[in-house]
Amino acid sequence: MKFYIILGPPGAGKGTQSALLAKKYSLLHISTGDMLRREIEAGTELGIQVKQTIESGKLVDDETMLKLIKKIISEPQEGIKGFILDGFPRTLPQAEALDKMLSERKDSISAVIYLDIDEDIIFQRISYRAKMEDRKDDMERSTIENRIVQYHTKTEPLIVYYSNKGMFYRIKGDKSIEENFKEICSIIDKIEYKR
Ligand code: AMP
Fold first, then answer.
1. What is the CATH code of the structural domain delimited by 2-186?
2. Based on the number of CB atoms within 10 Å of its own CB, is 8 exposed (0-12), middle (13-18) or buried (19 or more)?
């Protein structure tokens, strides 16, 4: 199974690109944010547990996230060639635990695609998404700021972590959806060709 990770700040376009990639390369798109929002909507025990954390723009604890990921990648999947992880990992302990999980099943990460965008674009995109998707964590400026702080302090260290492993690809994510997609596809096609 192939494992692709899409990394970047909130509003970088990870969800949009992941959905396009999933379709083109027969991957299962795993968006941990969407999964958690569905749990909240359904009022499950997990949803009740994480609601406040998500709405304040903080990160859900690693243990909960790892349980969630482990469950979904362990389920038998038919008709897919791999996974695209969107919003996971988001902390170093999550990244290390993922490596361990994958090596135990003799899998590894094929590529980490980093969508690099400027901070002013982040605000523009998130405010737009708040209107389109009615996302509570995208509405308040203080919550957005919290999400960006969490990103800088907890998620950004993953850039160095994955750069050191040599399957890290940075693209400037401020272009159009189509242009970003084309660039990501050319990276993936090159990786696939080399195999
Ligand atoms: P997203 O839709 O990816 O921006 O995620 C929305 C929210 O879900 C985040 O702000 C976190 O509160 C939570 N979340 C999603 N993925 C993770 C993760 N891997 N680790 C911790 N919290 C997460």
1. 3.40.50.300
2. buried
